[in-house]
Design goal:
The chain is of the alpha+beta class and about 425 residues long. It has 4 domains: about 1-100, Rossmann fold (3-Layer(aba) Sandwich), CATH 3.40.50.20; about 120-185, Dna Ligase, domain 1; about 190-310, ATP-grasp fold, B domain (D-amino Acid Aminotransferase, Chain A, domain 1, 2-Layer Sandwich); about 325-415, Glycinamide Ribonucleotide Synthetase, Chain A, domain 4, CATH 3.90.600. It has 13 helices and 25 strands. The protein has helices spanning about 10-20, 50-60, 70-75, 80-85, 95-100, 105-115, 125-135, 160-170, 240-260, 290-295, 305-310, 385-400, 415; strands at about 1-5, 30-35, 45, 65-70, 90, 120-125, 140-145, 155, 185, 190-200, 205, 210-215, 215-220, 220-225, 230-235, 265-275, 280-285, 325-335, 345, 355-360, 365, 370, 375-385, 400-405, 405. It binds adenosine monophosphate (AMP) and glycine.
Length: about 425
């Protein structure tokens, strides 16, 4: 079958690579728009996802049998509905279900009706209301813009002054536009975070190995939150804790999707805070994580082409995993996350090794020269028999890159090794 990946970042490059390696289930891989870094593995089509007419031409002309939607914006924009209505098989939930990610208020309401553990919260839309509601909680306070904000919509405020500043930015200065017209004021949950991804059709589910992202920009979890600076997987977890996550979070979340009759056939990414009282749901995403996907896909014992084409038809495959560990180190451009430098030179060696390689998240090629073209620029991937080997391989891979502008965290997975 010929498959089409929508998107252009590191997550999509990981999908393209995994589909290219799916020799018995995939004949040709296409990407829309794709990126310069993918051209040896996929045919890229320089088309906007929202230009439905041209998207359909690409699908028709290339006999695409399955479309896999990477990012949240086309899902929130209803691309999967448009394609399904025309009879195209899609990995990615409906626009209705994608509100689990595109609206924090909708998502919280879903969590409450599903009965999953999550922090207490209020919906707020004005500064005074926000400060008055906060008196019900102890600091720090968590304020979350309702809409999609590319990782910039969550404010952790140490005290009332910081909360006032965040609320003024959202409600008075409209710093995030419509996305911040309403917000969720949430109680702070202490603990450590894990990313729990499942494939689901709203009835059955299959879990991916547990992954741990590193959201803060700098070593030792300092600096601002980002889209994610590195991932290790699988994260070892005691069997009884894993069982608790399944029973209290995963099973009721899938049941609620089913009860509401959502068309899903995609990935539910559950962001969990592991608190002293057990798991608490921080957020849902309705897509593969970035950079979780880059670390998780190579662990499958099987072909992603087979798993994803079946998922697009509503079938959840049994997943088996290799006895390997994996690490992904994100190489970001100076200035990320606020204003990453574009056009800075990068020198890299493409490696065909299975054990360590680079994925392109935001690069551009002109002749033989590469340059930065995004915040997160490259992903260095390492695999190994142990987590220590995987992390070492990922850093070896990062070390092969030369650049005037890239930086990366030096402590990805260090906590897990301790
Ligand atoms: P979210 O987009 O909702 O996952 O929030 C982004 C990040 O903010 C999370 O990955 C956490 O690091 C942090 N965060 C969100 N909600 C809370 C909370 N209730 N308590 C503590 N940290 C939180
Ligand atoms: N790595 C977090 C996300 O994909 O949202």
């Amino acid at each position: 079958m010929n498959v089409l990946v929508i998107g252009q970042g590191g997550r999509e490059h990981a999908l393209v690579r995994a589909l290219k390696q799916s020799i018995s289930s995939v004949s040709a891989v296409h990407a829309l728009p794709g990126s310069d870094g993918m051209t040896s593995e996929a045919t890229c089509h320089n088309v906007e996802w929202s230009d439905f007419e041209r998207v359909f031409s690409v699908i028709r002309e290339n006999k695409i049998g399955c479309v896999i939607i990477g990012p949240e914006i086309p899902l929130a924009g209803g691309l999967s509905d448009v394609l399904r209505k025309a009879g195209v098989a899609v990995v990615g939930p409906s626009k209705e279900a994608a509100q689990l990610e595109s609206s924090k208020i909708f998502s919280k309401e879903f969590m409450i009706s599903a009965g999953v553990p999550t922090a207490r919260s209020f919906t707020v839309s004005a500064v005074d209301e926000c400060l008055a509601r906060a008196s019900a909680f102890a600091p720090p306070y968590v304020l979350k813009a309702d809409g999609l904000a590319a990782g910039k919509g969550v404010f952790i405020c140490a005290d009332m002054n910081e909360l006032r500043a965040a609320a003024e930015a959202l409600f008075e200065r409209r710093a995030l536009g419509e996305a911040g017209e309403r917000a969720l004021l949430e109680e702070f949950s202490p603990g450590y975070e894990i990313s729990y991804l499942i494939l689901t059709n709203g009835r059955d589910y299959a879990s991916l190995p547990l992954a741990q992202d590193h959201k803060r920009l700098l070593d030792d979890d300092r600096g601002p939150n980002t889209g994610g600076m590195g991932v290790v997987a699988p994260v070892p977890l005691a069997p009884d804790i894993h069982e608790e996550i399944l029973r209290r979070v995963v099973v009721p979340s899938v049941a609620e999707i089913g009860r509401r009759g959502y068309t899903f056939n995609g990935v539910l990414f559950i962001g969990l805070m592991m608190t002293p009282e057990g798991p608490s749901v921080l957020e849902y995403n309705t897509r593969f994580g970035d950079p979780e996907t880059q670390a998780l896909l190579p662990l499958l014992d099987g072909e992603w082409g087979d798993v994803l084409t079946r998922l697009s038809r509503g079938e959840v495959a049994n997943l088996r995993w290799k006895p390997l560990s994996s690490a992904c180190v994100v190489l970001a451009a100076q200035g990320y996350p606020d204003s990453p430098v574009k056009g800075a030179w990068v020198r890299l060696q493409q490696s065909n090794e299975q054990r360590r390689y680079l994925l392109h998240a935001g690069t551009r090629r002109s002749g033989d020269e590469w340059s930065t073209n995004g915040g997160r620029v490259l992903n260095a991937i390492g695999l190994g028999a142990t987590l220590r080997d995987a992390i070492e391989a990922a850093y070896e891979s990062a070390g092969t890159v030369q650049s005037e502008s890239l930086f990366f965290r030096r402590d990805i997975g260090r906590k897990q090794l301790r």
